[in-house]
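Render this sequence as a predicted structure.
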Amino acid sequence: MRYFPLMVDTQDKKVLVVGGGKAAAIKIQGLIDSSFFFYCLSPAFCDDLIALAEEHPERIFLKEKRVDGDFRFFAYDYFIVATDDEALNNVLLRRAKAASVPVLSASDPASSDFHMASVVRRGPLAVSISTANPTVSKHVKADMEEFLSRYDEEKLFEMNRIRRLLVERKSAHISEIMEELWNDEKISKNYGELFDETESGNERQ
């Protein structure tokens, strides 16, 4: 498996996007639920990208600038190249690799360092979907959204909170406790508060 799905920390990370057309807009739209900051360079920008920037002015920054093959990379964590000039895309891809900046090329996916997967979220639960075929991914994503709707968001958040609490207290049998809570259909915020009180009472004894 060449491209392995991983969870990466996007907090305070900067993504350089060269290109202002539909391809650039699609890539940014696919990452908008992250915490990335996007810096876009292009002589002009399509309406979709302008609309995205207006919707997220604190995270998407558009600058009208023509980029050539001598462009130098600095202070960026990721690079997306999505111009209409395939030759320029290839040059920028090679320069990004030489600068050790992970790069995604819209025109040359096979040479890219990373790919983007569709993501379905349910509270703290995230499932990534990658099929190398946008049409298949779209239908699988719809099926997965329906499947994940059966899970109670509040229960997922509460189980995570309780597990963090158990880890902080260096409690024993954490896995067994989590299994018991998962099988308890009545778990809720009130249950979690009762659990807090019980744990605190045990510590005082």
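Summary. The first helix runs from residue 22 to 31. The mean pLDDT is 88.
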